[in-house]
Amino acid sequence: MERNLLLTPGPSLVPFLIRETQAQEIIHHRTKEFREILGKVNLGLKYVFCTRNPVLILSSSGTGAMEASVSNFLSAKDTVIIVEGGKFGERWKEIALKYNLEVISYKIEWGSAPEAGYIKDLLDNHEEVKAVFTTLCETSTATVYDIESIAKVTKDRDILLVVDAISGLGQDKLLTDEWGVDIVVSGSQKGFMLPPGLGFLSISDKARDFMNHSSLPRYYFDLGKALKSYEKNDTPFTPAISLITGLEVALNLIKREGLKERWEKFCKFAKAVRAAAKALGLNPFSQWPSVSVTAVVSPEKIKSSELVKHLRNKYGVSIAAGQADFKDKIFRIAHMGAIEEQDLVVGFYFLEKALKDLGYKVKAGVSVQKIEEILSEGVK
Length: 380
Ligand SMILES: *Cc1c(COP(=O)(O)O)cnc(C)c1O
Prior knowledge:
Strand order of the largest sheet: 2-10-9-8-5-3-4
CATH topology of the largest domain: Aspartate Aminotransferase, domain 2
Number of domains: 2
CATH architecture of the largest domain: 3-Layer(aba) Sandwich
Strand content: 15-25%
Bound molecules: pyridoxal-5'-phosphate
Structural class: alpha/beta
Mean pLDDT: 97
Distance between the termini: 38 Å
Number of strands: 14
Largest sheet: 7 strands, mixed
Oligomer: single chain
CATH class of the largest domain: Alpha Beta
Shape: globular
């Protein structure tokens, strides 16, 4: 199948306008021309991150920015709290352990969300804690965490709140400065509509203080160096030039539509996708479903990994299976970045076919009809 409609929670669809921009001649990065682009991109990132603080761009996938937000702000043997409710919470823990941090793991069931009150109790009982690491949208379970409430218990203490918003940013609401989040991490291949290859992170004043006292080793991801260059609209090393020229276009598209409007749009998409799944007799998996991606419990007799494979190979539609223990139990459909109503309609049209091929009873068209019903609500 030549066609490939990407409804996966990263990488996600890249609009033609962005691909076209990336195909242009490479310009040199130590030029006025490129610095102007960086200047605009730096402003645009502040808009999407809802912050007045710097948002650094790293040449790596999102995980590089996650690692940088451990290695630049802490020291060996520092104690950190990590919310572990899925694959990406686990990744925070793996990184922290590699850097010899002491980890207090707040383990929650997959599909559930952490309670701010529990984090408050942990903090009250462990004065040695230096940072809380958590996630906006835990992509493996398609669950959104209540970052606003968590920030309420962290912001007046001498600790950092670090949020992995790699998949959530742009769809799931996150008010970095207003809520008091110190470090927000993201990446290019989800809500930003770009190919993979850029990591982003915003850095609060409090985080900068921590940086001055941090003694973990770093070289390529030395954010002190990156911040010095940032002030001059420059980068310490060769940046991923064509991704950054693409980013300028992506940020313009986001600005033109409006961040708040996009939050609302994706909220509606998420609602439509959940309703479409239910119309097929299937249940959404998460107790706190995210606006960026929906996880659906696969029919009992169908392994979700098989469904995903069949849908891609036969119909050219990519969705994601579950991860770890949920590999064969759930499938995940993204509604982020450049995904629009027509993509969801096409996705469900073929999802119905694929389910039917695998022996699941489907009344043709019910899920597509549901999407249309929900999305035309309030439209005159
Ligand atoms: C995709 C994702 C990551 C991993 O990002 P990479 O770009 O693959 O390194 C981390 N956290 C979350 C929540 C994600 O969705």
